[in-house]
Each structure stands twice: as C-alpha cells, then as structure tokens.
Amino acid sequence: MAFGLTDSQAAESKAKFGDNRLTEVEREGFFAKLKKNFGDPLIKILLVALAVNVLLVLGSKMGFIAGEERHWYEPVGIAIAILLATFVSTFSEHRNENAFQKLQADASKIRIKTYRNGLVIELPIDDLVAGDAVLLQSGDKIPADGIIIDGNIKVDQSVLNGESEEVSKKLDDEVLRGSVVCNGNAVMRVSVVGDKSVYGQIAKELQINDDRDTPLKVKLTSLAKTISKFGYVGGVSIALALLFQRIVLSEHCLTWPVLIKDIIDAVMLAVVIIVMAVPEGLPLMIAIVSALNMSKMLKDNVLVRKIAGIETAGSLNFLFSDKTGTITKGKLEVVAFIDGNLKECKSYSEIQSGLKKHLSLSIHQNTDSIISGDKIIGGNATERAILAFAGKSEENIEDIKVNIISKVPFDSTNKYSSTTISNPHTPYPIPHTLIKGAPEKILEKCKFYYDSDGQKKAYSGHGEIDKAINSLAERAIRTVAFAICEGDDWILVGVVGIRDEIRPESVVAIKEVFDAGVGVVMITGDRKETAVAIARDAGLLKNENDIVITSDEFAALTDEEVKAKMKDIRVVARALPSDKSRLVRISQELNYVVGMTGDGVNDSPALKKADVGFAMGSGTEVAKEASDIVILDDNFSSIDKAILYGRTIFNNIRKFIIFQLTINVSAVLINFAAPLLGHENPLTIIQILWINLVMDTLAALAFGGEAALRRFMKEKPKRRDEPIVSKGMWKTIFTNSAWIFILSLVFLFSLEGYFGDKLHTAYFTFFVMIAAFNAFNARTDSINIFDNISGNKNFLLILGLIAIVQVMLVYFGGEVFKCYGLDLQQWGIVLLLAVSIIPVDIFRKAVFK
C-alpha cells in the first residue's frame, strides 16, 4: 500500500493549509520584566531615597532646610544610577532566560516518522502538513490530528480529556495531537495541523510555563531574605542610633530645621545600609549560570529540560543506569544463529533455505521496525539489529505474503512479543503465532523444532542449547529466541546471539562517577550471566561484596532487606520497569538523591519519581517528557558530564555568594561604624549603586562562566539538607570582610590628612578595587588565584571593564560620584591596600587547608 506525499504535494499542502507549528505562548517581554523589577522592594526604597533627595534640593534652594547647599545633580545621579542598575540586571536576566529557552526549544524538536516520496523519513514535527502519512508506534506522541489508514493502536488521551483509560483506535478512527500511543502500530493520515488542531486550540492552557522555583533558587531566595532582614533591622537600628547620638549626646542647639536635617540624614543612612546589605542578585544568578552553561552542556550532548534536574544532578548518591546504548555502544549486531540441532551460523546466508523461510517470517512480521530505502527505522535497538541481520531477504519480500490478524507487544512479565498471521496461499493456511523473546521463557514451552530443511521435528535438546546460550552469555553476547506457535504446539526456530560492545569511554566515566561518591547500578533485561560479563568489563564489579541480583530475586526481598543491601547492589538482571520504581522509592526512603535513566513508555513512572530523570535521546517522547535531562547521544559519559555540570553550577553559585556576602558584610560594618566614630557617609548612595552593580549583575556574569573542573568529581555529594553557605564559606566571608573593614577604618581615619578633599574619591576607588581583587580569591579554592583562569575568559574581561569604568569615574565622575581625580602616588596607595586582600586570603587558605 502506498502512503504519503511527494515533496511537491507537501509544498502545495503547506501553501494551502500551513505547517504544523504551534503559536508559542507569549513570554514576559523585556519592558514587562523591567516594570516588574521596578516593583522590587529594594528599588522602592531607592525611589524613596530619590524623592527625599529631590525634597532636600528643593528645600535647600528655597531656604527651608539648613546646612550645606544641595545640588540638582544628586537626585539626577541617583535616578540615572537606579535606571542603569535596573536596566542592566533586567537586560541580563531577559537575555539569558531567552537564550536558555531557545536552546532548549531547538534541541528538543521532536522528529516524526513520515512517508515522503515513497520512503519513511524522520521529519521535524513543525514540518508536517495536511495529507502526510505518519507511522505511529508504541511510545510515540501523536503529532497532529488525523485518521488511521492502516493498523490499530491503543492511545492515552488524558492530556486532552483527563481520562487515563487507554482507547483503541482502528481503521478510519480519528486520533488527536498530544495523545500517546501505548501499544500497537498504525499509519495515520494527517488531517489538521498546527493551531487548528484540537491540541492547538487549547495550547495556551497546555503550554503554561512552570513558574515553580527550583530547590536551589528557593535556597538562594531564602538566604537573600534572611540577609535582607538583617539589613532592614540594621538600617533602622543604625538610623535610630545616629538620631540618639545627635539629639541626646550632641551639644548643638536643637531647632526644627536641624531636627528635620538629622531625621533626613538618618533615613539616608538607613537606605545606604539596606542597599548594601540586601543581596538582590542571588536569585538572578540561577538564570545567568544556567544560560551560560546551557550551550556548553548541549555540546556535550546534555539537554536540560528542567533546571532543577541539572542542579540536583551534582548531588546524586545513586545512579540507576540502563545498559544498552548507555554503558554499551548501542550498535547491536547479530553475530550468531543457533538452530535446534545446535548448528551455529555466523551470517544469515549460512542458514539453510528451508529453515530460513521460518526465520525470515519471524523476523520481518513480528517487529516494530521497518526497512525504508537503505535505512531501518522504528522499533528498538534489538529489533533493528535483528532486522538488519535478515535484511531484504527474498524469502520475505517475494515468496511470503501474510495477513496479520493480531499483535501483542513485548510484555515485561511474559518477556516476549507475538504476531498472529495466516494466508491460505502460504505454508501457514491456518493462524500461526510468531513468538520472539527471552530464551528461558520460550525454550521451556517448545516441544518441537524446525530442522535445516524447515520440517517440524520433536525437540528434546533443551539442556544442550542452554549450554550454548550460557557460552554466549560468558562472552557478553545476549540472546533472543524465535518460535512459531501452531495450535498448542510451540516450535523452536532458533536463537540469535546479539553483541553490543562496551563503550570505552563508559568504563572511564563509570570510574569517575564511582570516585565522585555516586553508586552506579546497571539495570538490564539480559540474563544474569550476560549481565555479569558486561558489568565486569565495564568496571561495575570489583569487590567481593558487589551484588548481582535478578528481578525474581529482587522481588523476593522485603524493603528492609533491600535497604540493608542497597550500597552493594551493582546489577539488576532480567529487570522489570516496576523494579526501577521500587529501587527509586527505597533509595529515597534512605534519604539518598537518586538518578534514573530510561527510554521506554514503561520507564516514565521511575523517571518522574527519581530526583533526576535521564531520558535517552533515542527513547520515546513519553520518556523524554517525564525526564529532567535528555542525554542526546545515549552515552553514560554524558551522564558523567551532567553530574559534573551540576556540581559546577553549584560551586559557581557558592563562589558568587562568597564574593557578594564578603562585600555586603564589610560595607554594612563600615557604614555602621564610621558615623558612630564621627565620619558620616563614607560612601554616597550613587557610589553604593555602582558597587551594587559590580556585586550583582557583573559579578554573576563573571562567576557564571567558570569552567567545569574534573576535580569537582572528587568531592562528596551534597546532602539534601546541606545549607547553601557552608562553615568553610562563612570562615572565608568573615575573614575577608574583617580585613576590608580594618583597612577601611585605617583609610578613613589615618589617611584623611594624606588624601584631603580627595578622601571620598580614594576610599570609593579602594572599595571597588578591593572587591575586584577579592573576586580572584573567591573564584578558586587553590592558592594559585589564576588556577584555570583560561577556562573563563569573561572573568578577566568583566573585571577589566570594572577597572576601566572605575578609572573613568575617578577622573570624570565629578560632583555626581564625588570623584575629583587621584595622582600616581595616591593611586599607588589605593592599589597597594586593595591588593593586600589577596595575600591575606592565600594565608587563610593555607591555614585552613
């Protein structure tokens, strides 16, 4: 039967009906985000400060407020600084979020098995047009509305109608986009595409973005709120202390103009403290770090669907991994065929023609794979390998034409699939059932076998063929048996041996993951002997305590018994999908962070239940949707990289926290102490806003690009309840902020005579430069502050930009920034004091290390 369109017909259909694109849900635009950011509590406080400054200028000009004259450029400068800081942070957040989402969308494009020009090709979902014929198989998500024109399937339409019950679809039945094929095979003629489909009409409801915060963002937001409380309380307390000092302790005459001025000064000081203390850049760090690492991860074949997944990947305690295509190459090849007489054939051509007819029929008619041109598509890797073994054999293509009565897909309990056929013009005039699956499930039922001439004979060689299968298993060759059921008689066709070589890089990656403190468990459908041979070669079995367990043995254990053995389990053979879910549940009850790989429909519950679900790029769309991360090349080494990136993101955020909190603590200390010691406002609000820009957006960009270092894989996994700021981090923060505070006191009270009227210029420059030098300390635990600096070139560029802008502010900042230039000698002192933070931190690292 001919299906599908030609390229010219597809072009005509597209011109007439459009393609299959869905209109994307409109995301929050730049100006909407900018408006939202102006509603931030900190910005509101700054706007209040701006209003107070405007009133001060007006009061000063009109003679209502005593004291020094206020100038218009102060409120204008504050306004520009607020606009600049808000604009830069909004632009950075908007750009990085959009970049992350675009990369996700581009890499997540589903490809559909479509008939074009007489062949089955894989077409991007957006390129489907009305009239296309689409091949639907178990695990596929139906890509458009259409009509079944061949075959029959069962679908889950719960995404459309909320009912999870499977619905049968046969010839001429309608199927709708978004439904999931649970089992069966069919060809669908596309009738409605894009926004006109039922799914398209309700897409806005279905495509609503998940705005729930990730665990790491929740931790960062919580940390920011906690620190902010201290900032607000500290700001108000310091303001009250200043008022107490001026009103009660001072000896000057208290008049209403003086009192108003004192209150305004106290309010302005409170604003300064709050602005310095509130780390509003912490939650923004997630968007920046994720976007900066997304493109790197994609190059390493790691597609992050949910940010929470990559955050959590770095904390895994256990990783339950599939074998085929993940630990092994996934390039399966049939290397042997053993018939009922124990004759072993290395190639299909060696098999006698009489037996070959039965084998060809069993291979071609009981499969979900098809041959299209020179390619084999559809089905799983095992089916494609077996079909490639037989190829376009004459026995199937020319001589044997059959009617397919029914199909039963592979069942994890029975461990075989079946197809019932008949045709009066073939050797199968009455219904026969073709059986394919696990040898131990099939051989025991076979009382007959086909000899080399294809004749049915009594069979009693079960023990001998078991020995042959075990011999293959010891060479890491898995086996699949074929039989034909005639009435109540099961007739053995033979057993094929399939080899799947271990990926050399997987052996290295498994060792690295073990060294990272992550327990790796291989889950496979292979028999125990085959699984042991592969696990040993992959480096999974090294110790006497390592446990290899079958699904039946696993089911016989209680949960408490499994928990006692959990740390030593390395392989689960002949595994069922339900075993995966149970392993996840038990591990999580032990408070472990669990990762699970999967590719099939039945893997979806375990992928969803795991802390991190890794779907394979070659897997079903259902598995991918249930996952947090898609491993595009199905390679275990890419999972290793995902764990590394998870740890890198976590470490980069911690570096940023050390940098920011060091500046916050030191700034609050000096702004608290200086007024009480008689030196008010060491930093102006405009200066503080520039420092805030350095601390938040620019620093996030600098630290967000730090390289993924292999030494992170030597660290222990982070506990679920581990705080984002460790004890070691607090030591770093308090040591360095104390040093900055001490130098600040020296600067303001011992060097005032040296710098004269340029003291504020010098101190402002000192504070920015010591923050920049401390960034080198924060970015590495190594005594060598340039360790792996080449891996993050943006770090040097951004710090260079900060230094250049600061120099420009020193000479051109004028009254707005209170900057009036510095000579070379003054620059020398400023830089010498600022750079001292580096040897101080090197000493700290040496002592605490």
Descriptive report:
The protein is α+β, with helices and mostly antiparallel strands and 849 residues long. Helices cover 51% and strands 17% of the residues. Strands 10, 11, 14, 15, 16, 17, 18, 19 and 20 form a nine-stranded mixed sheet that branches. α23 links the parallel β25 and β26.
- State the shape: elongated
Kindly report how far apart the N and C termini lie: 74 Å
Name the average pLDDT: 84
Main beta sheet strand tally, sense and closure:
9 strands, mixed
- Helix and strand content put the structural class at alpha+beta
- How helical, in percent, are the residues? 40-55%
Strands, count: 26
Number of helices: 32
Provide the β-strand percentage band.
15-25%
* CA gyration radius, whole angstroms: 35 Å
The poorly predicted ranges are: 205-212
